[in-house]
Amino acid sequence: MTHHTGKSSHTHRTSPPGQYSKNALGAKAAPVTIMVPRTEALYLDDATLRTLTTEVLSSQSISSLSEEQKSLAKNVPAEDSTITMRQTIFYAQGGGQPSDTGAIGPVDQDPTFEVSLVRKTPDGQFLHFGKFLDATSSFVAGQPVMQKVNDSKRNYHSRLHTAGHIVGLAMQLLMPDKKKVKANHFPREASMEYEGLLYNEHKPVIQEKVDELVRLDLPILISWLEGVAQVGDGEGAEEGRTRIASIGGLDHNPCGGTHIARTSLVGSIVIRKISRQKGISRVSYDVSPGIEA
Ligand SMILES: [Zn+2]
């Protein structure tokens, strides 16, 4: 799986410039190292959650973020804000799967904040980028809020992502020697890449195997392996344990993405084309139907 975020073992950061602890006399002391809690990513254990009540940890402007955090917000308008919360059901972009979108608001009220992009920092914090619908509204630390994930987009992304696993399993069954080098589950560019050469004549063979795996309605199983594995963010690594996704127990892939429960729920998978570049072959695919309105 490709990953879009860096890998790091940092669990804390120093406070931002200008933020100092004060001693009893009010004099400035050295910057303190503050623990920043990792966001509990609840979708890892329950991908069906679409609403959640949790607590705001921070709400700040993008301009006040560290350079490292700002670098995660490319293409987000500079005047937007970022929210961190104790828990999240929002999938953060990574592992070849796009970010969820959705909304956040006070409990039992209409949402006041529109989430356009979620990214995970190397510290394990989830930054929810977006804008307040009304410029005068805000969140304060400790405030209970309700998260709402855009359901049709999540379902579509989960189907595209799971389809990648199904193509991967089909390839493993058909050509066990072919080594997977890359995966992309973004809409319109979804593909799996393999070392070596594949040709158009492979297309109907892969299509047939993929159709069979969808028809078999195999369950997608999630499990955790304890111990640190050599995988990157977005590839299942979570605080010394690794998340494994398996189709019907037939394969085992480290994976941090969201999946549908059974292969039949993918709809149908279309192997679009097979292309080659520098000894790497790309199997491009799509799912049908596309995103629901
Ligand atoms: Zn996966």
From TrEMBL:
Q: Its Gene Ontology molecular function terms? A: alanine-tRNA ligase activity; ATP binding
Q: Name one process (GO BP) from the record.
A: alanyl-tRNA aminoacylation
**Annotated SUPFAM superfamilies:** ThrRS/AlaRS common domain, Translation proteins
Q: Which cofactor does it need?
A: Zn(2+)
Q: Where is the Threonyl/alanyl tRNA synthetase SAD domain?
A: 242-284
Q: Where is this region: Disordered?
A: 1-23
Gene3D superfamilies, alphabetically? 2.40.30.130, Threonyl-trna Synthetase, Chain A, domain 2
Q: Please name one Pfam family that this protein belongs to.
A: tRNA_SAD
Which SMART domains does its entry note?
Answer: tRNA_SAD
**Record field: compositional bias (Basic residues):** 1-13
Family under the similarity heading: Belongs to the class-II aminoacyl-tRNA synthetase family. Alax-L subfamily.
Q: What is this protein called?
A: Threonyl/alanyl tRNA synthetase SAD domain-containing protein
Q: What organism is this sequence from? A: Penicillium freii
User: What lineage is on file?
Assistant: Eukaryota, Fungi, Dikarya, Ascomycota, Pezizomycotina
